[in-house]
UniProtKB/TrEMBL annotation:
Assigned keywords, A-Z: Cell membrane, Membrane, Transmembrane, Transmembrane helix, Transport
Listed transmembrane segments: 12-30, 61-84, 96-117, 123-142, 214-234
Keyword Transmembrane: yes
SUPFAM superfamilies, per the entry: MetI-like
Family to which the UniProt record says this protein belongs: Belongs to the binding-protein-dependent transport system permease family.
Protein's organism: Evansella alkalicola
Membrane topology: Multi-pass membrane protein
Protein name: ABC transporter permease
Amino acid sequence: MKLNNFFLQHKGIYGTVVIIILWYIFHYLLQTAIIPSPIETIMEFFRLLQRDLLLHMFASLYRILVAGIISLILGVSIGLYLGLNEKIDQYFSPMIYLLYPIPKIAFLPVLMILFGLGNLSKIMLITIIIFFQILVTTRDSVKGLNKEWFYSIRSLGASKFQLYQHLVLPAVLPKLFTAIRISIGTSIAVLFFAENFATTYGIGYFIMNSWTRVDYVQMFAGILAISLLGLLIFKGIDLLEKHLCKWIILEKETI
């Protein structure tokens, strides 16, 4: 019982233990250098941190954070505007529905031609991915609000700012954070692919470079690094959600 409570309170430790056990099982069953042991990989990971692995991690983190901030500003602003203006949304919705399903990685060659082979094209690619997810989620969240709520809060003399503060944003934020989590996961996967083109820094480049050198221990150390990078981003999103959506935590506690 005490062990169960410990794992419930430390879910990160529980998840790490399960993954390492499964990793060991595959390493033992396959008996191949392609899947090195977890201990060997973890030791190599810490050794690489003293060299250039941190630079690769920071390069990837920088691209994701910059793209995320741009996407949030544009996606939330446009999403709120379209959600609150039904007539204008009718003109933009067909374009959104046409562009949203397209795999955004298809735009990478175009972005490289327009914005060069450096950071900008990769940031623009991630921005497009996150932007559409946030735009659609924000717009649909606003459109899903009961119109009577708007009438009620306006009848109380609420200003436009108070309308956003007490009705629109509280309704949008929880779904927005879910959209960010989904889009960030997709963005990391796409960034892994994009960092293999005309770059010398980034986790994607590091992993594929290790693979071409047939250094599977370093390759798995890179996979471990990208996993920790994702964990860092998701924990940051969780902290923001707890700070900005405090009423959700209070509801869970009362339940």
